Amino acid sequence: MISVTELRAGKRFLIDGQPWEVLEYKHVKMGRGNANIKIKSRNLKTGAVLEKSFLNGSKVETVDTEKVVLQYLYRDKDEFYFASPTTYEQTSLNRNVLGGKEKFLVEGIEVTFVMWEGAPLDIELPNSMIFEVGQCDPGVKGNSATNVFKPATMTNGLQLRVPLFVNVGDKIKVDTRTGEYSERAK
Protein backbone atom coordinates (compact mmCIF):
# COMPACT_ATOMS: atom_id res chain seq x y z
CA MET A 1 0.00 0.00 0.00
CA ILE A 2 1.20 3.50 -0.82
CA SER A 3 -0.10 6.90 0.20
CA VAL A 4 -2.04 8.84 -2.46
CA THR A 5 0.45 11.71 -2.02
CA GLU A 6 3.01 9.46 -3.80
CA LEU A 7 0.82 9.14 -6.93
CA ARG A 8 2.80 11.18 -9.43
CA ALA A 9 2.57 11.01 -13.23
CA GLY A 10 3.61 7.55 -14.45
CA LYS A 11 2.97 5.76 -11.13
CA ARG A 12 0.86 2.59 -11.34
CA PHE A 13 -1.70 1.46 -8.73
CA LEU A 14 -4.80 -0.73 -8.27
CA ILE A 15 -8.43 0.33 -7.81
CA ASP A 16 -11.02 -2.45 -7.48
CA GLY A 17 -8.52 -4.98 -8.85
CA GLN A 18 -7.89 -2.96 -12.02
CA PRO A 19 -4.44 -1.52 -12.85
CA TRP A 20 -4.29 2.27 -13.41
CA GLU A 21 -1.52 4.71 -14.37
CA VAL A 22 -1.48 8.33 -13.16
CA LEU A 23 -1.55 10.90 -15.98
CA GLU A 24 -1.95 14.07 -13.89
CA TYR A 25 -1.66 14.81 -10.16
CA LYS A 26 -2.97 17.82 -8.17
CA HIS A 27 -2.82 18.52 -4.44
CA VAL A 28 -5.77 20.77 -3.52
CA LYS A 29 -6.10 22.48 -0.12
CA MET A 30 -9.11 24.69 0.42
CA GLY A 31 -9.64 26.74 3.57
CA ARG A 32 -9.73 24.85 6.85
CA GLY A 33 -10.82 21.51 5.45
CA ASN A 34 -8.73 18.48 4.61
CA ALA A 35 -6.51 18.46 1.56
CA ASN A 36 -7.69 16.53 -1.47
CA ILE A 37 -5.57 14.67 -4.00
CA LYS A 38 -7.06 14.83 -7.49
CA ILE A 39 -5.66 12.54 -10.14
CA LYS A 40 -6.40 11.82 -13.76
CA SER A 41 -5.54 8.21 -14.55
CA ARG A 42 -5.77 5.70 -17.39
CA ASN A 43 -6.91 2.09 -17.01
CA LEU A 44 -4.03 -0.01 -18.30
CA LYS A 45 -6.34 -2.81 -19.48
CA THR A 46 -9.10 -0.87 -21.24
CA GLY A 47 -7.53 2.52 -21.91
CA ALA A 48 -10.41 4.34 -20.16
CA VAL A 49 -9.52 7.66 -18.51
CA LEU A 50 -10.86 8.49 -15.04
CA GLU A 51 -10.63 11.55 -12.80
CA LYS A 52 -10.70 10.61 -9.13
CA SER A 53 -10.39 12.49 -5.86
CA PHE A 54 -8.87 11.07 -2.66
CA LEU A 55 -8.66 12.47 0.87
CA ASN A 56 -5.13 13.25 2.01
CA GLY A 57 -3.84 10.22 3.95
CA SER A 58 -5.73 7.63 1.88
CA LYS A 59 -3.84 4.62 0.61
CA VAL A 60 -4.00 2.57 -2.60
CA GLU A 61 -2.52 -0.77 -3.58
CA THR A 62 0.60 -0.91 -5.73
CA VAL A 63 0.78 -2.96 -8.91
CA ASP A 64 3.43 -5.67 -8.96
CA THR A 65 4.66 -5.58 -12.53
CA GLU A 66 7.39 -7.33 -14.46
CA LYS A 67 9.39 -5.68 -17.24
CA VAL A 68 10.40 -7.39 -20.50
CA VAL A 69 12.32 -5.87 -23.42
CA LEU A 70 10.70 -6.50 -26.82
CA GLN A 71 11.36 -5.21 -30.34
CA TYR A 72 8.65 -3.43 -32.35
CA LEU A 73 7.96 -5.21 -35.66
CA TYR A 74 4.96 -3.79 -37.49
CA ARG A 75 1.39 -2.53 -37.29
CA ASP A 76 -1.81 -4.07 -38.69
CA LYS A 77 -4.75 -1.64 -38.38
CA ASP A 78 -5.20 -1.17 -34.60
CA GLU A 79 -2.83 -3.98 -33.54
CA PHE A 80 0.88 -3.42 -32.96
CA TYR A 81 3.22 -6.45 -33.02
CA PHE A 82 6.37 -6.96 -30.96
CA ALA A 83 8.84 -9.85 -30.68
CA SER A 84 11.30 -11.06 -28.07
CA PRO A 85 14.90 -10.64 -29.35
CA THR A 86 15.90 -13.97 -27.76
CA THR A 87 12.92 -16.32 -28.23
CA TYR A 88 11.30 -14.58 -31.26
CA GLU A 89 7.90 -15.05 -29.60
CA GLN A 90 5.43 -12.42 -30.87
CA THR A 91 3.04 -10.33 -28.77
CA SER A 92 0.46 -7.83 -29.94
CA LEU A 93 -1.05 -4.78 -28.27
CA ASN A 94 -4.15 -2.85 -29.23
CA ARG A 95 -4.00 0.90 -29.89
CA ASN A 96 -6.25 1.56 -26.84
CA VAL A 97 -3.68 -0.02 -24.52
CA LEU A 98 -0.80 2.03 -25.93
CA GLY A 99 -2.50 5.28 -24.95
CA GLY A 100 -0.97 7.51 -27.66
CA LYS A 101 2.56 6.07 -27.47
CA GLU A 102 2.11 4.34 -30.84
CA LYS A 103 3.04 7.56 -32.65
CA PHE A 104 6.64 7.16 -31.43
CA LEU A 105 7.05 3.56 -32.59
CA VAL A 106 9.60 2.99 -35.34
CA GLU A 107 10.32 -0.46 -36.78
CA GLY A 108 13.18 -2.14 -34.95
CA ILE A 109 13.07 -0.02 -31.77
CA GLU A 110 13.37 -1.90 -28.48
CA VAL A 111 10.74 -0.99 -25.89
CA THR A 112 10.15 -2.16 -22.35
CA PHE A 113 6.88 -4.02 -21.86
CA VAL A 114 5.16 -3.74 -18.49
CA MET A 115 3.60 -7.12 -17.71
CA TRP A 116 0.97 -7.79 -15.00
CA GLU A 117 -0.29 -11.29 -14.24
CA GLY A 118 1.35 -12.55 -17.44
CA ALA A 119 -0.41 -10.09 -19.74
CA PRO A 120 1.11 -6.96 -21.34
CA LEU A 121 -0.28 -3.73 -19.89
CA ASP A 122 1.82 -0.91 -21.24
CA ILE A 123 5.10 0.00 -22.91
CA GLU A 124 7.86 2.29 -21.69
CA LEU A 125 9.69 4.31 -24.33
CA PRO A 126 13.08 5.98 -23.99
CA ASN A 127 12.71 9.55 -22.63
CA SER A 128 13.87 10.99 -25.95
CA MET A 129 14.08 9.65 -29.48
CA ILE A 130 15.61 10.94 -32.72
CA PHE A 131 13.40 11.42 -35.78
CA GLU A 132 14.04 12.77 -39.28
CA VAL A 133 11.92 15.68 -40.51
CA GLY A 134 10.00 14.53 -43.59
CA GLN A 135 7.92 17.61 -44.35
CA CYS A 136 7.88 21.24 -43.15
CA ASP A 137 8.12 24.79 -44.45
CA PRO A 138 11.61 25.93 -45.45
CA GLY A 139 13.88 26.98 -42.61
CA VAL A 140 14.59 30.63 -41.93
CA LYS A 141 18.11 31.54 -40.83
CA GLY A 142 18.55 33.82 -37.85
CA ASN A 143 15.32 32.92 -36.07
CA SER A 144 16.91 30.62 -33.51
CA ALA A 145 16.69 33.15 -30.67
CA THR A 146 12.91 33.50 -30.73
CA ASN A 147 10.41 30.98 -29.46
CA VAL A 148 8.43 30.70 -32.73
CA PHE A 149 7.42 27.28 -34.05
CA LYS A 150 6.07 25.81 -37.28
CA PRO A 151 4.28 22.50 -37.94
CA ALA A 152 6.38 19.57 -39.17
CA THR A 153 5.80 15.92 -40.04
CA MET A 154 8.46 13.32 -39.31
CA THR A 155 9.24 10.44 -41.71
CA ASN A 156 7.23 8.04 -39.49
CA GLY A 157 4.12 10.30 -39.61
CA LEU A 158 4.57 11.97 -36.21
CA GLN A 159 3.37 15.58 -36.30
CA LEU A 160 4.74 18.24 -33.98
CA ARG A 161 5.87 21.85 -33.82
CA VAL A 162 9.53 22.69 -34.46
CA PRO A 163 11.56 25.95 -34.44
CA LEU A 164 11.71 27.96 -37.66
CA PHE A 165 15.34 27.02 -38.43
CA VAL A 166 14.57 23.29 -38.85
CA ASN A 167 14.56 22.00 -42.46
CA VAL A 168 13.43 18.83 -44.25
CA GLY A 169 16.00 16.07 -43.69
CA ASP A 170 17.20 17.42 -40.31
CA LYS A 171 17.32 14.97 -37.43
CA ILE A 172 15.72 16.23 -34.24
CA LYS A 173 15.37 14.90 -30.70
CA VAL A 174 11.80 14.58 -29.41
CA ASP A 175 10.81 14.18 -25.76
CA THR A 176 8.49 11.13 -25.71
CA ARG A 177 6.95 12.11 -22.36
CA THR A 178 5.56 15.40 -23.71
CA GLY A 179 5.68 14.80 -27.48
CA GLU A 180 7.53 18.07 -28.05
CA TYR A 181 10.67 19.13 -29.88
CA SER A 182 13.73 19.00 -27.62
CA GLU A 183 16.78 19.86 -29.73
CA ARG A 184 18.63 19.16 -32.98
CA ALA A 185 20.27 15.75 -32.99
CA LYS A 186 24.03 15.72 -33.21
In short:
The chain folds into 3 domains: 61 residues, SH3 type barrels; 59 residues, Nucleic acid-binding proteins (OB fold (Dihydrolipoamide Acetyltransferase, E2P), Beta Barrel), CATH 2.40.50; 57 residues, OB fold (Dihydrolipoamide Acetyltransferase, E2P) (Beta Barrel). The protein starts with a strand and ends with a strand. A 6-stranded antiparallel beta sheet has the order 1-6-2-3-4-5, with no helix packed on it. The protein has a 5-stranded antiparallel beta sheet with strand order 9-8-7-10-11. A 5-stranded antiparallel beta sheet has the order 14-13-12-15-16, with no helix packed on it.
Explain what this protein looks like in three dimensions.
Helices cover 2% and strands 54% of the residues. It is an all-beta fold and 186 residues long. The strands form three sheets. It has a six-stranded antiparallel beta sheet, with no helix packed on it. Strand 13 (149-154) and strand 14 form a beta hairpin. The chain is flat, with a radius of gyration of 20 Å.
Which H/E pattern describes the elements? Answer: EEEEEEEEEHEEEEEEE
Question: What's the end-to-end separation, in Å?
Answer: 44 Å
- Helix fraction bin: under 10%
The assigned structural class equals: mainly beta
Instruction: Please indicate the count of domains.
Output: 3
The parts where pLDDT drops under 50 for at least 5 residues are: none
Average residue pLDDT: 86
Instruction: Give the amount of beta strand, in percent.
Output: over 45%
The CATH architecture classification of the largest domain is Roll
Describe the main β-sheet briefly: 6 strands, antiparallel
Under CATH, the topology of the largest domain can be stated as SH3 type barrels
Radius of gyration: 20 Å
Number of strand segments: 16
- The global form is flat
Order of neighbouring strands in the sheet with most strands: 1-6-2-3-4-5
- CATH top level label of the largest domain: Mainly Beta
